[in-house]
UniProtKB/TrEMBL annotation:
GO terms, biological process: cell division
PANTHER family: LIPID II FLIPPASE MURJ (PTHR30250:SF21), PST FAMILY PREDICTED COLANIC ACID TRANSPORTER (PTHR30250)
InterPro entries to which the protein is assigned, alphabetical: PG_synth_SpoVB, Poly_Biosynth_Transport, Polysacc_synth
Main subcellular location of this protein, as a coarse class: membrane
Species the sequence originates in: Priestia koreensis
Protein name: Cell division protein
Keyword Transmembrane helix: yes
Length: 546
């Protein structure tokens, strides 16, 4: 496969992922206005369960199938690739059906544990209903995921990218339309509206599956030609085939489970701890902010790290396997610097603009602004944990990443309730941050030991990035202060939007100019990026002159 085709495929897949993420964020703003923070909590109860059980149902198999198919295609053994695909479809259907049945049956018990053995703003029946509504998607999504993996194994990223966007679009449209109709047209309950909103996962899955079937029908003649040209297939039993598949699957499922597992711990401890702290009346209100609304904003910069983490594995693996350790160290260093360069200013901007940003995007809430300000730094932790896990996977030391996740989760379980009782709802954020810090320290040590990586250059440039981010933050604060004489973020969404957009624009300009003028931008992002910026600026000047 040519490098240009590889880059194009990576770009297509990344673009589809980003569009899907943006759609998955935008819908929250009108949805939050319709159902409120308590409705957000109810929505989170269902989706947190869904995320965990989906990971259990798929077990990292879709990405592993991609690797398996790619390997045997490279050997010319298209028969074994197709055989794995057929067996994988059957397995995903069975595991999806089993996890759906289990989650559906267990919904009342999970609902009871979620509410801390008592009814709060949301009733036991409401939570049970929402969990059951979202569980239906488990029947389809695992099969859809393995079809995507099969196409990716053939270096065809279009089906995955397009189906992701269509799936998300269908889900969001159904979610918003059904919520509006239930609450505003038929004046139904908020719980019923949220139930239909979670059922949107099933509707989206149907739409995504339809796209994949269309691609399959279109591509099948060419796939059959490859099958006819297959070399003598590998002599493998079905059991041996799955054994190899699951040897690939472990790391993929582990990386994807990290954030959902932390949220899962919150689901079963948050309300109980808030009740114990004498804040039962605020429990679900705070849960909605902390678990449903704010994380979506935090995941914007984190998605940059996720994209780097997923594309990092092949290059790290290649350098490590070929013994090019100097190149390996440069790749690790470049990745660390790029993550800090991109995520740090976003974190600082979210901290300084936390209150107007939250009021602009969601309903007016001082608690929401405070939670966003507290949660923003965790974006860096999410990012570096994802990247460290990918690096360890690339150098075939994924067991250390698994150990770090287990240790971090133990810390989260041990401290979560205590911190919530001490600090209120934001105690769960502190507990999460502590768990991730310990995991990152451990994984960083393992990377240094096994890749002989020294972070000297990274830390030197990080000091400079912190200085520039601080200056950027100061400029944003000045803008916010000056605008406060004319508008206040508490005056409404328009006023909050003016402050947010003006502050973000100035902050981006200040950080961009500082990093460009000092040469930091070129050192971190490369001369190609700087060249693109220069050409575009030049075009602007030429167009203005004309």
């Amino acid at each position: 496969m040519s490098e240009s085709k590889l880059l194009r495929g990576t770009f297509v897949l990344t673009l589809g992922t980003y569009i899907s993420r943006i759609l998955g964020m935008i819908y929250l703003f009108p949805f939050a206005a319709l159902v409120g923070d308590v409705g957000g909590a109810l929505f989170g109860y269902g989706y947190n369960q869904y995320a965990i059980y989906l990971s259990i149902a798929t077990m990292g198999v879709p990405m592993a199938v991609s690797r398996f198919v790619s390997k045997y295609n490279a050997l010319g053994d298209y028969y074994t690739s197709r055989r794995m695909f057929r067996a994988g479809i059957k397995m995903m259907f069975i595991t999806g059906l089993v996890t759906f049945a289990f989650l559906y049956i267990m919904a009342p018990f999970l609902a009871k544990a979620t509410l801390g053995n008592q009814e709060l703003n949301n009733s036991l029946a409401d939570v049970t209903m929402v969990i059951r509504m979202v569980s239906v998607a488990l029947i389809i999504v695992p099969m859809m995921s393995i079809i995507r993996g099969f196409f990716q194994g053939h270096q065809s990223m279009g089906p995955t990218s397009v189906s992701q966007v269509v799936e998300q679009l269908a889900r969001v449209v159904f979610l918003l339309v059904s919520t509006y109709i239930v609450m505003r047209v038929f004046h139904g309950s908020m719980a019923l509206a949220v139930g239909f909103a979670t059922f949107g996962a099933f509707i989206g899955a149907l739409a995504g599956l339809a796209v994949l079937f269309w691609y399959w029908k279109k591509r099948k003649p060419n796939l059959d030609k490859l099958l006819a040209q297959s070399v003598e297939p590998a002599q493998m039993t079905t059991m041996q085939m799955f054994k190899e598949l699951f040897s690939y699957a472990g790391p993929f499922v582990f990386i994807g489970l990290a954030i959902p597992l932390y949220q899962y711990i919150d689901q079963f401890t948050f309300n109980k701890a808030m009740v114990a702290a004498g804040q039962a009346d605020k429990a679900e209100y705070m849960y909605g902010i902390i678990q449903s609304w704010v994380p979506k904003l935090i995941m914007i910069p984190v998605s940059l790290a996720t994209a780097f983490g997923l594309t990092l594995v092949p290059t790290i693996t290649s350098s490590y396997a070929s013994g090019q350790y100097d190149l390996l160290k440069k790749q690790i260093d470049q990745t660390y610097q790029t993550i800090m360069f991109l995520v740090l200013p976003a974190v600082v901007g979210l901290i300084v603009l936390a209150y107007p940003a939250y009021n602009f995007l969601f309903t007016g809430s001082k608690d929401g602004g405070f939670v966003l300000m507290m949660y923003a730094p965790v974006a860096l932790l999410f990012s570096y944990f994802t990247v460290n896990a990918a690096i360890l996977q690339g150098i075939n030391k994924q067991k250390y990443a698994v150990i770090s996740l287990i240790v971090g989760l133990i810390v989260k379980i041990s401290t979560n309730s205590l911190f919530i009782m001490w600090l209120g709802g934001t105690g769960s954020i502190v507990s999460t941050a502590l768990g991730y810090v310990i995991s990152i320290v451990y994984t960083s040590a393992m990377i240094q030991n096994n890749a002989e990586y020294k972070a000297t250059v990274f830390w030197k440039r990080t000091v400079l990035m912190f200085a520039f981010a601080a200056l950027m933050g100061l400029s944003v604060w000045i803008v916010e202060f000056l605008l406060s004489f004319a508008v206040n973020y508490e005056d409404g969404r328009i006023a909050a939007g003016i402050i947010t957009i003006a502050g973000a624009t100035v902050g981006l300009a200040v950080y961009g100019i500082l990093t460009y003028r000092t040469g930091l931008l070129e050192k971190v992002m490369g001369s190609r990026i700087v060249g693109v910026i220069q050409r575009r600026l030049l075009r602007k000047k030429v167009s203005k002159a004309s």
